[in-house]
Amino acid sequence: MGKTLFEKVWDAHIVKELDGGNEVIYIDRHLIHEVTSPQAFEELRRRNLPLFRKEKMVATPDHNIPTINQHLPIQEALSKHQVDTLLSNCEEFNVELFGLGHPNQGIVHVIGPELGITLPGRTMVCGDSHTSTHGAFGAIAFGIGTSQVAQVMATQCLLQSRPKTMRITINGELKNGVLAKDVILYVISKLTAAGGTGYFVEYAGSAITSLSMEGRMTICNMSIEMGARGGMIAPDQTTFEYIEGREYAPKGAEFDKALAYWKSLKSDEDARFDQEYEYDASDIAPMLTYGTNPGMGIKITDNIPLSLGNGSQDSFDKSLKYMGFTPGESLMGKSISHVFIGSCTNSRIEDLRIVAEFVKGKKKSDHVNALIVPGSKQVEKQAKEEGIDKILEEAGFTLREPGCSACLAMNEDKIPDGAYCVSTSNRNFEGRQGQGSRTLLASPLVAAVTAIEGKIVDITKHLN
Amino acid sequence: MEKFNKVTSTAVPLPNEDIDTDQIIPARFLKATDRKGFGDNLFRDWRYNGDQSLKTNFPLNNVRFSGEILVSGRNFGCGSSREHAAWALYDYGFRVIVSSFFADIFKGNALNNGLLPVQVSDDFLAELLLTIETDPSTEITVNLETQTISYDSHSASFDVNSYKKECLINGYDDIDYLVNIKSEIEAYEASSITI
């Protein structure tokens, strides 16, 4: 029997098999940031252990940094201490660091791919659940806790039980105005926030392979939102062209050798998956979430359902009460005061281009507060080179400096208590974007249209 | 890690489903650089009002309920990989979380910190929640050795990874094991084909 893409990459990384189905897996690259690494460095010191393979690690601050005036010292004392701790730890253990202001700094899941650190066939981890993003390149990438961060630091390995495999196939052509974000919100609305738990997902089909690398990253990024450990897409010509020439990618003969290997990384025809789902691209429309987990999504023009088929009515009702919505109501015409465009889900150059193209020559609604945050210094630089910052300014927006920002609101970028925010990020949990904030997840296009209109509209009637 | 063998305790019921790690420990409390004190902010925004007064109807603030066991609705711990969620639950005093379904990363983090996730059937969970609500003095016993959870005349078995079970009973961490097989890791590196 043939192997799935996941099995090919996983099996190539087994260091040792243990009784009871556990395996020791080798990790090719380890990304770290300021929030989930300090206790891991402390663990190394406490146990008097050296860092095993420092050349396989890269660090950047992203979660807990301001997105304006990054050239000035961080104002908030605890945040400053945490970022300074990352700096001093990287210095002590000699880890490559892209600090604030460095041209390679940015959200860890944006910089990995754009620097060519993320490669097909690699295993990658980070103390962050959205590490699944890197699976867009045919890598096995997943989020880990801080104890595991310390394990990888000390041994470059993790003890894992093998996840089950799932394939989600989406064939057909996506309709006008439907983006990768709508595809993944649609899938999660079908499978629920727990439907992927225990699985590693492969996304396949013509609607997936026709996406850019940016779109594929958006899809894989949100795999964790249905509980899956990770998501993957088989690398193809789009992948190889994206990688070639990037700073840390193999060059010349090394690239050719790697390419030959990467081309073998696809699921065999006779490979078997533990679970399979198929969807038709033409059924997918611009999406919006209405509740407090990412599985609570609807087509933007649909009404909120009266219940969730497989969940408790009490939890559903509590969720809608928090959001200030009633079962069965339409979101059309709802006034929106905040829009956030950014996060490891949607802060890449393609996302900013989509926003700029739509808002060009228009004006932001007066009552909307918008945060537009690029994913990295490189994205910021490219946006400026393309004049995107000017287009945004003329439409009443400001392009900020890179970071995780209002996705999780660890810094000052918070949505106020009770306010509605149409957000391109990945989680609509209670208080995620600030205490009492109410998040509606959407694509960058839906977010841009909302910022101009100041309310929820059927965006397909507003496309340029 | 502290050894785990058997816990007999009353329990706190929290029937909500899909409790995510942002509720367990909101992101604004992740600025610490050590592992201490997260229990104070466990379920912060569900325990406290904006003016820092207690939300008296929340089960953790309800004087009827206490104990080392938290019983919660399905898909407990979904969301982020923050281990701070497991630290906060442990620091608050919980040693066992009972649910009918756990998110993967949370489950791993809990096991790495001596906090035992016990997965039971939806029916067992519903019955248990009802029992605690009716009689909060009900004592529940979770025995890791025999992999059983029991109270009154009810009993159920639960699954636990055999390796993690051994770690919990003996207080071993994964890192101890991995550091001890370093020569095998180096042998793997020498033979690896990936880049």
The strands making up the biggest β-sheet of chain B line up spatially as: 1-6-7-8
Largest sheet of chain A, described in full?
5 strands, parallel
Average pLDDT level of chain A: 97
**Proportion of residues in extended strands of chain A:** 15-25%
Number of strands of chain A: 18
Radius of gyration of chain B over all CA atoms, rounded: 18 Å
How far apart the termini of chain B lie comes to: 35 Å
Which secondary structure elements does this structure contain, and how are they paired or packed?
The complex is a heterodimer of chains A (464) and B (195).
Chain A: H1 5-11, E1 14-17, E2 22-26, E3 29-32, H2 38-47, E4 57-59, H3 77-93, E5 96-97, H4 108-114, E6 123-126, E7 140-143, H5 146-155, E8 157-161, E9 164-171, H6 180-191, E10 199-204, H7 206-209, H8 213-221, E11 230-232, H9 237-243, H10 252-262, E12 275-280, E13 287-289, E14 297-299, H11 313-323, E15 338-341, H12 349-359, E16 369-372, H13 377-385, H14 388-394, E17 420-423, E18 438-441, H15 444-453
Parallel strand pairs in A: 3-4, 3-6, 4-5, 6-7, 9-10, 9-12, 10-11, 15-16, 15-17, 17-18
Antiparallel strand pairs in A: 1-2, 2-8, 13-14
Chain B: E1 6-9, E2 11-14, H1 21-24, H2 44-47, E3 69-72, H3 84-92, E4 96-99, H4 104-111, E5 116-119, H5 122-134, E6 140-143, E7 148-151, E8 154-157, H6 162-170, H7 174-180, H8 182-191
Parallel strand pairs in B: 2-3, 3-4, 4-5
Antiparallel strand pairs in B: 1-6, 6-7, 7-8
Describe, in plain words, how this protein is organized in 3D.
- The complex is a heterodimer of chains A (464) and B (195).
- Chain A has helices at 5-11, 38-47, 77-93, 108-114, 146-155, 180-191, 206-209, 213-221, 237-243, 252-262, 313-323, 349-359, 377-385, 388-394, 444-453; strands spanning 14-17, 22-26, 29-32, 57-59, 96-97, 123-126, 140-143, 157-161, 164-171, 199-204, 230-232, 275-280, 287-289, 297-299, 338-341, 369-372, 420-423, 438-441.
- In chain A, 31% of the residues lie in helices and 16% in strands.
- With 464 residues, chain A is α/β, with parallel strands linked by helices.
- Chain B has helices at residues 21-24, 44-47, 84-92, 104-111, 122-134, 162-170, 174-180, 182-191; strands at 6-9, 11-14, 69-72, 96-99, 116-119, 140-143, 148-151, 154-157.
- In chain B, the strands form two sheets. Chain B has a four-stranded antiparallel beta sheet with strand order 1-6-7-8, with no helix packed on it.
- In chain B, a hairpin with a 4-residue loop joins strand 6 (140-143) and strand 7 (148-151).
- The two termini of chain B are 35 Å apart.
